[in-house]
Amino acid sequence: MKVIALHGRRQMAEIFSQRLSKLTKQLLSQFNASTVFVDAPFALPLEVDQDVPTRSWFEGEEWTPAIATVCQHIAQHTNQQEPLVLVAFSQGCVVATLVCVLASMARSQLLTGTGLSADTLAILASLEPRIRLVVCAGGPSDHFPTRLHTVCNMTATAGLKLSRPLDIPSLHYIGKKDPVVSAASSAALAALFADPTVIHHDQGHVFPTTKHMLQPLHAILSKVTQPSTTTDGTSPGTGSVAAFEANEDQQLELDGLAAVFESDFELLKTSPPTVSVQLDEEDKEPRSARLVVTLSQDYPDVSPLIEVVGLATSLDVHIKYQPPLASQARIALQQSIDDNLGSPMIY
């Protein structure tokens, strides 16, 4: 499973990743789900004391770059069968909802004259069965570009509505003290989904990450991501590993890694064995690059699942060059795996 995280207006992927670090660690350890944080396509003017511009998903009525950006990241960082969870804050909730609406329409071949490329339309058409859950915090219903009302068969005369509510599980956090997005606006966004779960909290315009607030998210994820199993106990499709505990040789390698990397090493799961190794130098702030490895039962004779998380952020790579970097990293990792099959390879 892959989590696609969409920040709010006047944020960026790096800031959002820091604020959701607790949640992303839990998702990885409990659901073996890594998170891809996506930067919005439009840079905003620098404000006082800012060195790096924050970003926005929309620029006036221009909305197609937002959808193209999300689809590009999904295509680059996931395989075609991998289940998806969209996690969004504020303006990002509009984009997450819009992706769901357009995915449904693209699958039914109802999208015409949108300005979206053929590649983006093809990606959208593949998403509807893959999106297992949408999580929104502080999401407004009144920030959809008006040009989209016609494209998406929306009516806005008596509150924003779809001709057919989205049949996708959704969870919506609504702040009772939110000074930016009213509770009524967030409730109207939730109403675009057929069967939303709505959680009210006593905070303001935030994505709540307390244990009490995250429990409903974990409960819903446990239901919607339950995989069917094959006769050998593994989950269908690529990117899945059957539950098992490390054998003696595998445990020796993990113990050696823990001794070498010390605080930079973290055991995320024991079944299947999943570890994380920090890649940044100690004086690098924030330390965002991590190597995440899930052992296969017959490792090292069978390839492990390996992913580098946060590399583009660590190297301060411009968003334009992030997809090629991710592709090059995957090719290099696969080559290293192929060259070292049969031997301990994580170090």
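The record above closes out task 2.4. Task 2.5 opens with a second protein, given below.
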Amino acid sequence: RRSVRCVDAAMAAAATEAQSTQAEVDLQMSPSKWSARMGPDAVITAHCTCLDSESATARGELHCELNVPIALSKQTVDITFPSPTSDARKVFFYIHGGMWQFFSKRESLFMARPLAANGVTVVAPDYTIAPSGTMAQMVEELRLALAYVLQRFATHDVYISGHSAGGHLAVMMVLTDWSRYACASAASRIKGVIPVSGLFNLQPVKDCYANEALRLTDADVKAFSPNILLKESSGSSNIEACKHTKVVVIYAQRDPTEFRAQSIALVQLLKSHGIDCDEHDISDMDHFDVIECLRDKSSRVSRIVQACMGLPLT
């Protein structure tokens, strides 16, 4: 009986430890629980309201093309244009976040007005979010959308940005064999990539609650984790091809520690491949207001973006 009780106690302790470990993984993948401004539900509600209202205002005030179809894809993009007299010839290609399963291009034009004032065209692509879309499908749809932008705006420099899940997808755009999309030479016009509060190793995503919808496999983690690809692909032609691209990695003081650690690791890996890379740890901000502040052209994050794009600092 004593041995049975010992086994039972050991099993109970192991189960408790597993539950504790799972709870920690889930917490690290829950940025809303790290905000000091408000509770988890309130910070998400405020975030949604901010992105939606600012994007609606941009659509109402700027010259737009909405729901522009992309060849070979079921997805579309929304485009806002600056004044016709602008000669900036720069495109800001913004990929929305939402843990690969929320949001759309509808909430992705919140920074368009201040960028339009600086002569920048903004392109917001849609992609098939989970559970309908797989990670492979999302990456492919965004590559097709970016290929469209490179071909349509043939005289423009292109800057890719994204927040959270979109930050991950933005970096995946750099790690692309553009010869497959008939625009290998045009890819030299991808001048900058600005991931904001992204995740670059999908293993903890696979291990957390979000994978119920995402259905990531071990093969997906290896194929679509920039930090793994950069670590294991020394000398790869895709990495060599992106050495003309400036990478600016932004993360918030109150991002989950896993998000921060992965951003720091991304910077180190990019630099190890000789890629020009800067990082910015934004104090007193969380996972949500660090990207919301792009609607304010004088915010610290906006000024970082302006500097990366070679725009006048405001």
